[in-house]
Each structure stands twice: as structure tokens, then as C-alpha cells.
């Protein structure tokens, strides 16, 4: 008997950079526009359909500079068919105003974190008034949000948000479970099952990502549960103990192999646009 979800193909999102790793500590991290475009092309060829983008300034430090973001969106669109998702999370030090302004770069999609969470020694701030303001702006500007869920409380907040403010632009509800962050839910199969079982009925698709050593257990469980995958150097810097990632495409290739083995091969950017109802 084939379960429905086992016949669906897999959306692979690549998150190649993030805001936490220093270029000096990891020269393979794509921090320039040229590196990002090259990464996007190779990851698309390896099976990615969406890219979750954080950008850096000329000194490789995280930035939410609107000009740079706009230029980045254009460059990825010109060189790939990937769905362009900009991070509105930024770095833990970014002010709310700058994070709201990200939408002005007109991406296809944006991340939208559903609550505050301890983040290692830091705090990733997402108070309710910020979450609701950002959500309403996505609806006004026709940006498809991806709800980032770091904890079970964020799942409860997603119920509240949808009840109060209705469906996102496009009518689909896609979320991403970010697991294994020190301060958030653990990257375990049990936690994944608990979070997925609690998702609102309006959710039409979900992906999961496990940071660090939780990458593989989270990816394998997500595939088995009918979910999609997010991988990349934002979340994972080693393929195995003592084996550093030398290019984001290695993580996408591994995700694509797992998905293919699970008989849920990677979906094309075009299929992903249908899944998320992102404009063409
Ligand atoms: N860099 C983290 C503080 C997102 O992209 O929306 C937040 C983050 C989530 O990466
Ligand atoms: Zn991010």
C-alpha cells in the first residue's frame, strides 16, 4: 500500500549562507554575489528548487542593505529558475525595521519566524506584534511566507496567526521546522513527529531542517513523514565528523540522493511554484 505522501516529490530548499558563520572561519561559505550565484546554479543542477538567502556586505558581515538585497534577487532570477526566498530573520542584532523592509526587495518568498527563541548564547527576537506586522505586509506585497518553527510554541502561534489574519498570499501554507538549535526544539524524530502532528489543518506543505549533527535524523524522518527538505551551510558545516562541507551542492546532492532512495525525487522549481503557489 502506497501512502499518498510517498508518491509526492520532494522540495529541496538550499540555505547556503546564514548569518552566523564567519567567512574567516569557513572560506567555502558563499558571501559575495558572485559566489552566491555560482552556488545557486550548482545547487539547482543538484536538485534544489528554492534558495533561502542571507547576504553579506563587502567585509563578509551580515547585512540587510536594501540595494544589495534587490540586486541579489535580480541576479538569482537572471541565472536560475529557483524560487527566491529572502530571510527576514537576518542576524540576531538586526533591528525590526530593517527586517520588515526586506519585503521591499520583492522576493518570491520570505521566511517568517513564529516566535522568540533562545539561539545559543543569543536571543532571536520575534515578538507577536512584529510577527503580525510582517505577516500583514507579506499579504499586502504578495510575498509568499515560509513560517519558520523553532519550537512547539511557534506551532501554536501559527494557529493563532492564521485564525486571526487568514491565509497567506497565494492561499497555500508552507512551513519549515528548524530543529536542533540550542534553545529550540531538539532535532529528534520524536520532536519532529510531535510538531508535525500539531500543525494547523490549513498547512499544505512543510519542510524540516536539523542543524549540525541533527541534519541526517531530521532529514530521514521528514522524508518518511511526507515532508520536504531544507539543507545548506546556514545549518550544517560538516557532512560527517571531521568532514567539512566544501560546497553547498554537496549537501543538496546528499539530500537529493536520500529523497530519490525514498522514492520521492527532487521536484523542479516549476513544480515547487505550483506547490507553494508562487507567482511565475
Ligand atoms: N539567523 C537567525 C537569527 C531566518 O532566516 O528567518 C535567524 C534565521 C531565520 O536565520
Ligand atoms: Zn535563515
From TrEMBL:
Its cofactor is Zn(2+). One of its GO terms (molecular function) is 3-keto-5-aminohexanoate cleavage activity. Signal peptide: none annotated. Keywords: Metal-binding, Transferase, Zinc. The keyword Transferase applies. It holds the Pfam family BKACE. InterPro entries: Aldolase_TIM, BKACE. Transmembrane segments: none annotated. Gene3D superfamilies: Aldolase class I. Residues 262-280 are annotated as: Disordered. Residues 270-280 have a biased composition (Basic and acidic residues). This is 3-keto-5-aminohexanoate cleavage enzyme. It comes from Kribbella flavida (strain DSM 17836 / JCM 10339 / NBRC 14399).
Amino acid at each position: 500500500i502506497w501512502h499518498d505522501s510517498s508518491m509526492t516529490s520532494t522540495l529541496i530548499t538550499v540555505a547556503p549562507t546564514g548569518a552566523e558563520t564567519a567567512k574567516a572561519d569557513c572560506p567555502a561559505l558563499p558571501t559575495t554575489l558572485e559566489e552566491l550565484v555560482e552556488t545557486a546554479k550548482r545547487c539547482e543542477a543538484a536538485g534544489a528548487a528554492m534558495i533561502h538567502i542571507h547576504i553579506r556586505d563587502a567585509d563578509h558581515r551580515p547585512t540587510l542593505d536594501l540595494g544589495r538585497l534587490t540586486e541579489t534577487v535580480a541576479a538569482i532570477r537572471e541565472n536560475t529558475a529557483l524560487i527566491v526566498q529572502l530571510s527576514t530573520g537576518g542576524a540576531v542584532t538586526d533591528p525590526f525595521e530593517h527586517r520588515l523592509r526586506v519585503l521591499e526587495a520583492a522576493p518570491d518568498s520570505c521566511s517568517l519566524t513564529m516566535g522568540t527563541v533562545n539561539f545559543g548564547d543569543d536571543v532571536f527576537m520575534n515578538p507577536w506584534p512584529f510577527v503580525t506586522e510582517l505577516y500583514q505586509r507579506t499579504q499586502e506585497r504578495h510575498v509568499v511566507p515560509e513560517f519558520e518553527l523553532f519550537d512547539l510554541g511557534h506551532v501554536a502561534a501559527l494557529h493563532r496567526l492564521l485564525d486571526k489574519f487568514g491565509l497567506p498570499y497565494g492561499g497555500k501554507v508552507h512551513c519549515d521546522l528548524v530543529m536542533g538549535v540550542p534553545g529550540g526544539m531538539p532535532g529528534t524524530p520524536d520532536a519532529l513527529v510531535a510538531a508535525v502532528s500539531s500543525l494547523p489543518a490549513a498547512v499544505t506543505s512543510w519542510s524540516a531542517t536539523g542543524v549540525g549533527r541533527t541534519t541526517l535524523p531530521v532529514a530521514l524522518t521528514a522524508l518518511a513523514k511526507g515532508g520536504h527538505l531544507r539543507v545548506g551551510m546556514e545549518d550544517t558545516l560538516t557532512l560527517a565528523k571531521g568532514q567539512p562541507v566544501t560546497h553547498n551542492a554537496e549537501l543538496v546532492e546528499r539530500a537529493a540522493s536520500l529523497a530519490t532512495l525514498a522514492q520521492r525525487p527532487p521536484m523542479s522549481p516549476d513544480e515547487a511554484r505550483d506547490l507553494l503557489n508562487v507567482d511565475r
